[in-house]
């Protein structure tokens, strides 16, 4: 506990701010039913009621409480993005490390598959696949995980290649250790820092990807609360100088900035560089 407290005290203000943002969002996601004053799908007033009174941030295009929708949006959008990022890393890191450790034809086949997937812009690819297969949440998560795993594959393969040529890896192979031992006991522990940092960055990309698809109508579907679709549903208020549609957009931007601050601090700590300020 003392070590954690000392680490937090030594962190720059940007990292502390990022950690605070992540903590607030996590608490909102976990305790959404207790924090939200109304139900997620409950119509509680007239359309586009102003801020104040019974509705802290007004109501949306159907008369649902905006504050409630924002809280449940944290649970839905962030949770789906986090689980999708975990799938992304499971696919990308495992195939990337397999390609680095085995080399030869395994590396060639996996690398060419990744090249094909990366040749088409991710957004266009996702729009095409989701238009064909439908927009259910499991389909959305699988499609995004497959597309984003190509970036993780590239990183895992690149850093893994630098490790598999080391003497201690060669000694393990001469000892008769299998490919699983080499990957999980020799290679993975020595590349964990860049992979952890990439997890934070990839979460931001996945989070923005899901929000963008929802804004276009092919992401998380109504009536599930989602920040991307909330921007689209209330966009007409911009014409009347009402900032309500900017609230979910601001929630997206704030979490992205907070995660990036924490990732920057983590990279600074693991790289051995010192903050001169």
Overall number of structural domains: 1
Top CATH class: Mainly Alpha
Radius of gyration: 22 Å
Approximately how much beta-strand content do the residues carry?
Answer: under 5%
Task: Give the terminus-to-terminus CA distance.
Answer: 26 Å
Largest sheet features:
none
Shape: globular
Uncertain stretches of 5 or more adjacent residues: 273-277
Corresponding CATH architecture: Orthogonal Bundle
**Structural class label:** mainly alpha
- Number of E-type strands: 0
Output the helix-strand order.
HHHHHHHHHHHH
CATH homology superfamily = MetI-like
* Average residue pLDDT: 86
Report helical residue fraction.
over 70%
Structure notes:
The protein has one domain (12-30, 74-271): MetI-like fold, CATH 1.10.3720.10. The protein has twelve helices and no strands. It is an all-alpha fold and 277 residues long. It has helices spanning 2-10, 13-30, 32-35, 66-102, 104-119, 122-133, 137-164, 167-174, 179-187, 192-216, 227-233, 246-271.
